[in-house]
Amino acid sequence: MARQLDEQLVGHFPVGRRLRVLDVGMGRGTQALRLARAGHQVTGLERDAEMIATARATLAGEPEGIRERVRVVEGDGRDTGVHFLPGSFDVVLCHGVLMCVAEPDPLVAGLARMLAPGGLLSLLVRNGDASAMRSGLRGDWAGALTAFDTPCHADGSGLEVRADRLTDLTATLAGLGAPLHTWYGVRVFTDTAVEGARVAHALGRPDDLVTLLAVEERAGRTDPYRGVASLLHLCGVRG
């Protein structure tokens, strides 16, 4: 997903431009820190105190120049209007958050309002069009049957999460003035690789890991594979 995001940033903004980035639901700060290292000014919004502490501890180990480019704000992604002015950011990230929100439209609307004209919105969501198939491939027949009729299902850890359909989010983004520019699949094959054994094997072998990433990257941009990915990465552009 990081490669996909970088591809969009390079293709969408002038080379060398330092972007104002808002990372909603920043978690441990992986993407925020990566983008700060690339020279961008990043604001991370997170409500989980443990995640914030982890992000700040990681940030403390970075050089001063990078630390100065990251601001951490405690708050809920649904309250962006409380913390920031509309149009304040060139890029807004919201990765792995919509799946935890019962009503995603107000959140997405708030994210779109944060974008400056021409700004890029990056969403990472559960793929509602593939939930039944993914459960079936794992041999979870009850989960597959349920997934036909509901956007909610248990993830690998047993937590209840919600999935989104590409057509629904495409319509939502168009209605908010940030129409879908492109989309990718994420984790096309790795979720169903024999209880993760093959993935773990690849992680321990650099050459295998390179090949694994190449396969996932190719599949994530190629039909029909991207349509059955576990996750969808959608990029919209503010008009």
UniProtKB/TrEMBL annotation:
Q: Which Pfam families match?
A: Methyltransf_11
- Keywords for this entry? Methyltransferase, S-adenosyl-L-methionine, Transferase
What GO molecular functions are on record for this protein? 2-polyprenyl-6-hydroxyphenol methylase activity; 3-demethylubiquinol 3-O-methyltransferase activity
Q: What class of enzyme is it?
A: transferase
Against CDD domains, the record matches this protein to:
AdoMet_MTases
According to its UniProt entry, the protein's GO biological process terms are: methylation
EC numbers, comma separated: 2.1.1.222, 2.1.1.64
Entry-linked Gene3D superfamilies: Vaccinia Virus protein VP39 (3.40.50.150)
Protein origin, superkingdom = Bacteria
Q: Which InterPro entries match?
A: Methyltransf_11, SAM-dependent_MTases_sf
Residue ranges of every copy of the Methyltransferase type domain listed in the record: 22-122
Keyword S-adenosyl-L-methionine in record: yes
Q: Which PANTHER family match?
A: METHYLTRANSFERASE, UBIQUINONE BIOSYNTHESIS O-METHYLTRANSFERASE, MITOCHONDRIAL
What is the designated name of this protein? Class I SAM-dependent methyltransferase
